[in-house]
Amino acid sequence: MKGKRIAAVLLSAAMLVSMAACSGGTANTSSAAANSQAAPSSADNTAKKLTIWAWDDTFNVKAANEAKEIYAKSNPDVTVNVVSMAQNDIVAKMNTAFESGNMDGMPNIVLIEDYRIQNYLKSYPGVLSDLSDITKTDKFMDYKLKIMTENNKVYGVPFDSGVACVFYRSDLIKQAGYKDSDMQSLTWDKFIEIGKAVKAKTGKAMINVDPNDLGIIRMMIQSAGKWYVDADGKADIANNAALKEALAIYKKMQTEGITVTSSGWDAGVAAVNDSKAATAVMGCWYASSIKKAADQSGKWAVAPFPKMSNVSGSVNSSNCGGASWYVIDKVPGKDTAKDFLSKTFASNTDLLDSLCKDISLVSTYKDTASGKNVNTPDAFFNNQPIYKDWNDWTKNIPAVNYGTSTYDIESKMTEAVQSIVKGSSIDDTLKNTQTEVEGILSAAG
Amino acid sequence: MNGNQFPADGQGKNQMWKTSDKVTHHTLEKKLNRWGWIFVSLSAVLISVFVFIPMVGALIMSFQTGKGVNAHFGGLTNYIRLFTDQTVGKALGNTFIYLIIQVPIMIVLALIISVLLNDDKLKGRTFFRIAIFLPCITSLVSYSLIMKNIFSNDGIFNQMLAHIGLSPILWTTDPFWAKVLIIISITWRWTGYNMVFYLSGMQGIEPSIYEAAEIDGANAVKKFTHMTIPLLKPIILFTTITSTIGTLQLFDEVQNITQGGPANGTVTISQYIYNLCFKYTPNFGYACAVAFIVVILIVILSMIQMKVGGKDNQ
């Protein structure tokens, strides 16, 4: 009995400790939350050392490093430190630092995904610096500026376009009896029709879907100028005609058997690289993943995003992902950080043009359209001038308000999508989801 | 045990009245008492600062709604939202499915394996013990990634199925099979851990009682159900409670194998709390409210298990 008592004491201690491990971090943040509104720190706004956080070694980290070299030429006395960190880690660190108001260890410049920025601007005003004086609003694409503007102030420097497109295997489409011209100005109905032919003639799926990632539905609704929330940030689910149509298309693709399912990012890329799917409908940044399969060089082509024929206002252009640079206001050295951005990503067309060659960057800076590399054809994509195409399509991307809670809503939407695919009525399911999303948004209040 | 180390207890007092050197004993007692309090106060302060105060802070925070600078006292809003949030229901449901199915399977497996490996006549017994215990020393993340790889839709397991002419199982994209995969994974990882407890418990069972039972004509099954299990009861209770707590806090495997998917089909409560803080738009108040639900659940479950498991002993 004594042994049991000791075990009981040990267990309850273990429970307490483990609970505290969970609550400890959050409790500390509550006490310090009040500080986040404190006046900006000391007058010293210049620094000899800058830190930049970004998350993709083959993409935005490389871009930051090239910018660093260019900046070093004009400002040799400033040391720039580019840190590569997983995006999830950056988000977790920003969440805790912004909530607590303690900016120790935070970088001067950070890359933030466009879907997330509204939350940081609304929940933590004053944490990010006003960059209106270095981001010239007439120089960048509108849809990109809109998401980083709050009270007529621009808080970021736009980086990459996530212009959506259809990457497709020209050879498989031809085997199925269609031509490259059939892939232009697609509608989703036509896409499914071609998909059925591809499945019948080649045995391959038309597209890969991941039940955890609704990127394709997000792209569809943005092509109609809609989102999970409306322009005022209110939940827009149950009466969202574009969303309903997107879900119907998504379901139809599965019932017609033209999809292959995989879980997680790497599995999706593998499915494309292993020729399991004839197309990938993604943001332009997906090109680097497609190019991993070097043996498929010359077989790929790029077409504009399909539109939804039953939804008025749906265009052959949309967006998926994309990120922008931001300066954290309370980290010492914000003037140097702004100077860095203004001399690189906010104005330097040479840098942006060479990034087009080095990392396949599609910039949202309007002047890059005339750059040398932007107009160069790409051998992997059968000598198609893909960068020029993407630049053109970027201009037509409908601007939407991403709101503050894209990923919370998406998590609820994955549940809705699953029950719809299994046969529930779209209207009833979305009504339910509407209530849940309203709960999320009112809690954000 | 504790009483003997500190004579400040009842025993000391009885002596005090009887003996004549009351004063000296009293000062010794006081001195011991003082040192006792000094020792206790150190850990008391530490545990207050790092455990109790944050717990109270979290409780206060669980009544706050709004994000960032918009946070304000919201009364029971977060707790009310718990009841309308279907993901909480899903996460609780998943957690209990893991609990109800996985813990018994694992405990029974561990018991059977430990009985088999306790046999002196078994050759290579150490090898098997090591082999079965080995999963426990692998990192949670790395074994999860390997499981994910083996059971991915075109992984080794499905290729094996294809070779013997069966259709592949969608382990990671079908909500049912994804749960099965999680259960398989945690069973593989933790069975050996529990086995070690039972093995060490069996070393304490006198072999002569088994001999006596054999003479009385008990077969192996009888010996297992009527002797080994009752004698190991305290250990079984202990492992059941730790496994229950472990399952309620399940995070790493789900995060790495399925990321909670497909469509929150495998999400657990701890993972949902994590998502609310770090994956979604941070909502620490609501996350704290969910965390307190887990506290209440663990307390209730542990009480039930102590009651059920400890009845005979008291």
Structure overview:
The complex is a heterodimer of chains A (445) and B (314). Chain A is 45% helix and 11% strand. Chain A has 16 helices and 12 strands. Chain B is an all-alpha fold. Chain B folds into 2 domains: 2-61; 87-310, MetI-like fold (Orthogonal Bundle), CATH 1.10.3720. Chain B has 15 helices and 2 strands. In chain B, a hairpin with a 6-residue loop joins strand 1 (64-65) and strand 2. The chains are: A alpha/beta (445), B mainly alpha (314).
Compile the SSE list and pairings.
The complex is a heterodimer of chains A (445) and B (314).
Chain A lengths: L1 H31 L16 E6 L5 H15 L4 E6 L2 H14 L8 E5 H10 L18 H6 L1 E2 L2 E2 L1 E3 L5 E6 H6 L12 H15 L4 E3 L5 H9 L17 H15 L3 E3 L3 H9 L5 E5 L3 H4 L9 E5 L18 E5 L6 H10 L5 H11 L26 H9 L11 H16 L4 H19 L1
Parallel strand pairs in A: 1-2, 1-3, 8-9
Antiparallel strand pairs in A: 3-12, 4-5, 6-12, 7-10, 7-11
Helix pairs in contact in A: 1-3, 8-9, 15-16
Chain B lengths: L1 H4 L4 H9 L3 H40 L2 E2 L6 E2 L3 H8 L1 H32 L7 H9 L6 H11 L5 H8 L11 H29 L3 H9 L4 H12 L1 H16 L3 H6 L11 H11 L4 H27 L4
Antiparallel strand pairs in B: 1-2
Helix pairs in contact in B: 2-3, 4-15, 5-9, 5-12, 12-15, 14-15
Protein name (chain A): Extracellular solute-binding protein
InterPro entries (chain A): Bact_solute-bd_prot1 (IPR050490), SBP (IPR006059)
Organism (chain A): Caproiciproducens galactitolivorans
Q: Oligomeric status of the shown chains?
A: heterodimer
Mean pLDDT score of chain B: 83
Radius of gyration of chain A: 24 Å
Shape of chain A: globular
Q: Which structural class should the secondary elements of chain A be placed in?
A: alpha/beta
Strand content of chain A: 5-15%
Number of domains of chain A: 2
Q: Strand order, biggest sheet of chain A?
A: 2-1-3-12-6
Organism (chain A): Caproiciproducens galactitolivorans
Keywords (chain A): Signal
Signal peptide (chain A): 1-20
Protein name (chain A): Extracellular solute-binding protein
